[in-house]
Amino acid sequence: MKEKTTSFQLLITLYIGIITTGMLMMPRQLYRIASLNLWLSIMIGSLLGYFSIIVITLFLHTFKNKTLTEITEETLGPYLGRALTFIFIFLTFYCEAYFVRQYTNFISTNFYPKTPNYIIIGSLVMVCCFAVYHGIEVICRCALIALPFILLFFSLGSLLSVPGISFVNLLPILDKGLVPPLSGASVSLAWFSEFMLLSMCTPFIRHSKTFLRDGFNMVTITLITLLILIVSILLLLSAFTGVPLYPYIVSVSYISIGRFFEHIEALVMAIWIVGAFVKISFYLFVIVHSSASFLRLSSYKLNALPISFLLFLFSLWIYPSAQSQIKIGSPLINTITILVNLFYPLLILGFVLFKKKNMAY
Amino acid sequence: MKWMNLIGYSVVLYGFYLFEKKNLQKKHDRIVFFMLLGICWTVMFSFLFFHSLLNPARLMLFLFKPLIPILGK
After folding, report:
1. A205 phi, psi to nearest 5 deg
2. Under a CB-based contact definition with an 8 Å cutoff, are residues A140 and A5 in contact?
3. A123: which DSSP letter?
4. Disulfide engineering: B71 pairs with which of A174, A191, A335, B17, CB 3.0-4.6 Å?
């Protein structure tokens, strides 16, 4: 395989995708379940991130240069393996269509209410398809270029909201026991489980020896970033965190310095577009690459255009409003993400260990 | 309008074929590529003419409904 990238670059790509979508979508969902203890839900959810890194490292050492779908076919045989791979590709594709729709609804609700959806979706899918066509290295480089701007904006947003925050908003801690934060963890699990998608990119990793260390570091950095961002929203908005569709936009709109530095919501949109582009490109690459190996194509580039077109159609079709997307779509996507990124790799890992144990005797 | 959209999208699919024509040297690649274009056309047709009848979001909700209270909050 010609294209190679470092594990650090791949992890940065996922980091950007997780924090940009997490800071917009997670606070409302988490507050509605775990209320003031949402920070604990994020910490519990991050355990899955560490677990994903361990599982991928195991796969990396056992099956060198093989993706999870290829491992599935090798472990479960051609029929069951291919059936499972097809289900994985379809469910990941559905999640991808949801993310595109999420992006569209956010942009059209807050900034471009009069622009037709097919323009917003079409332009994003076209750029993502172009990036996928040029390979994983291009996507990772784009993520690296965007990283300083995203970090600068996030730190600026959190720092400038400091005058309005009150630490009393965090109290009381665990007032309803451990059950609400544990239930809320299912929301943050969905975000942290995205680290499992790296198992689809293992053939592209250049230095796999440092993967475990890099992975653990990146999950910790993701956890810290999400904690800072989401807790700062909670400290500022308190009980209002669970009311608006996008609490981060509301918290940023409070920022006003000397009456000349206001309305930095436009910057949120800029950061969101970059983050969404990185996340959707990465997901699209995973889908295109795994479907190409499923269909035994000589190059994954051949199915980039048809799959992007299907993505365009599906994302136009599902969840026409932000309300339906958040009320109906979010729980469904959390379920699918946990199934695809937690139960599916666990099942394969179980089979691999079972097979190894049987071969040893 | 729907028919105009259908023609427009079909032209886009033909454009995909023209774009990838030189890379479709192997017979298997050609078959799979045309199969994918066929799927695209069918989904597009369903989207344009049976928009509310065959919504994939409803289908997925129906399939995963029993799991949502357990896994997705």
Report:
1. -80, 125
2. yes
3. H
4. A335
Amino acid at A122: G
Structure-token match 């509605």, residue found:
A32
| One-letter amino acid of A182 | L
Q: DSSP letter at A340?
A: I
Q: Are A112 and A120 in contact (CB under 8 A)?
A: yes
Does the global pTM surpass 0.90? yes
Cβ contacts (< 8 Å) between B26 and chain A: which residues? 298
Nearest CB among A307, A313, A336 relative to B44 is that of A313
Residue in A with minimal Cα distance to B65? A332
Q: Give me B71's structure tokens.
A: 């896994």
| Chain A residues close to B28, C-beta within 8 Å | 296-298
A289-325 as b/e, with b when 16 or more CB fall inside 10 Å? bbbbbbbebeebbbbbbbbbbbbbbbbbbbbeebeeb
DSSP string, A230-251: HHHHHHHHGGGGGSSS-HHHHH
pLDDT in tens, A209-249: 788 888 999 999 999 999 988 888 888 888 888 888 888 88
Task: Name residue, tokens 């990119």.
Answer: A201
CATH 3.30.980.10 fits A7-340, yes or no: no
Asked if residues A348 and A72 have their Cβ atoms less than 8 Å apart, the reply is: yes
ipTM above 0.90, yes or no: yes
- Domain with B52, as residue range(s), is 2-71
Using CB atoms, which residue from A298, A318, A332 is nearest to B72?
A: A332
Residue pLDDT, tens place only, A123-161:
999 999 999 999 889 999 999 999 998 888 888 888 887
* Amino acid at position A335, single letter: T
User: Which CA distances in Å does A28 have to A115, A119, A250, A325, B2?
Assistant: 26, 28, 12, 13, 38
- A90/B34 Cα distance (integer angstroms): 19
Query: How crowded is the C-beta side of A101, counted as CA atoms within 13 Å?
Result: 26
Q: Which residues of B touch A186 (CB under 8 A)?
A: 71-73
Domain edges within chain A: 7-340
Alpha-carbon distance B43 to A310, whole Å?
A: 7
Give the residue among B36, B49, B14, B61 at the shortest CA–CA distance from A89: B36
Q: How many structural domains does chain B have?
A: 1
